[in-house]
């Protein structure tokens, strides 16, 4: 199973077998059913997760009960409530499973240890954070530019299988458009 | 001057004098006048910048000529077109000076060298990237939640001096609201 994690890391840094054995020893395997929560608003966020298979969403629910989807996570994605994780505080997001999911989890302490012990893993996680930062910046640009059709097209280009796996209502929530607006794009 | 950079780094990792001397040797000092460009759309982005003093904006201009501000940068901030910098491609953003600015610049190659030579600097930049990612995520949430007044209040809370230093039109562009909407908030 964890060959997937090794391949994922080795897209950025090469690992020896013993390095990967050490890395692997710091992760725990986790299985969740459809609709089950990985992170609940208000709970302490002690772990970060790598998705082996399945599909999750990270979302924020505002005072009026409206849900805004901040991130989908599927195979080879990392997910947690990063603000809570980094600052070791309580979650403001909910993360739950759209499909049954298998994950590898690493605690804040073990990630710190891993990065301190293996410089190349510090580099790996720096690269992942930088790429994540850039992806977020692109999403902000598309939100400011307010072109909902373009946002939809970009999402479909990046993740062509997403529309088959995710209900349209959730795609609309991610894009910040109404379901009616989305139906117009996705039908054309 | 570079005591400012040392203090900034030492908020996250402690440095010896010789380590800081080495770090400093990889940076170049740069002075720009008001309205001058640091990065221009279409140019290759080879450097990242630390702001010693002054104020800049990073923005994207869409097909119709409308400018969307992605970031302000002032004292102790890092700025560049990160997408172009990380992928070593041409800029899609413009970065120009709202005030005359003094910067320290580090090339992509020197940053790579610095992080490889000094593990603690890899850690430092991992932390900065992670905190940047979280800040971007918060901004996406406030854009999706579409509460312009809250966005304005958060910005003023984070950077109370910004409104004095930045024309209202630019604040409006950053927040993704019209100047009229902004005037209503800022007057109240």
TrEMBL record, chains A, B:
It holds the Pfam family cNMP_binding. It comes from the Bacteria. Coiled coil: none annotated. InterPro entries: cNMP-bd_dom, cNMP-bd_dom_sf, RmlC-like_jellyroll. Residues 30-109 form the Cyclic nucleotide-binding domain. This is Crp/Fnr family transcriptional regulator. It comes from Xanthocytophaga agilis.
């Amino acid at each position: 199973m964890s060959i997937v994690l090794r391949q994922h890391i080795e897209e950025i840094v090469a690992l020896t077998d013993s390095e990967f054995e050490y890395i692997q020893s710091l992760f725990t395997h986790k299985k969740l059913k459809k609709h089950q929560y990985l992170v609940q608003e208000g709970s302490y966020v002690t772990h970060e997760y790598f998705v082996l298979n399945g599909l999750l969403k990270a979302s924020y629910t505002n005072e009026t009960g409206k849900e805004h989807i901040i991130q989908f996570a599927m195979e080879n994605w990392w997910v947690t409530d990063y603000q809570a994780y980094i600052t070791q505080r309580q979650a403001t997001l909910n993360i739950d499973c759209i499909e049954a999911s298998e994950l590898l989890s690493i605690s804040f302490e073990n990630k710190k240890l891993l990065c301190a012990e293996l410089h190349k893993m510090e580099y790996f996680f720096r690269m992942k954070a930088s790429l994540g930062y850039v992806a977020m910046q692109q999403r902000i640009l598309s939100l400011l530019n307010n072109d909902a059709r373009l946002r939809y097209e970009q999402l479909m280009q990046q993740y062509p299988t997403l529309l088959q796996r995710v209900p349209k209502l959730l795609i609309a929530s991610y894009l910040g458009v109404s379901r009616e607006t989305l139906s117009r794009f996705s039908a054309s």
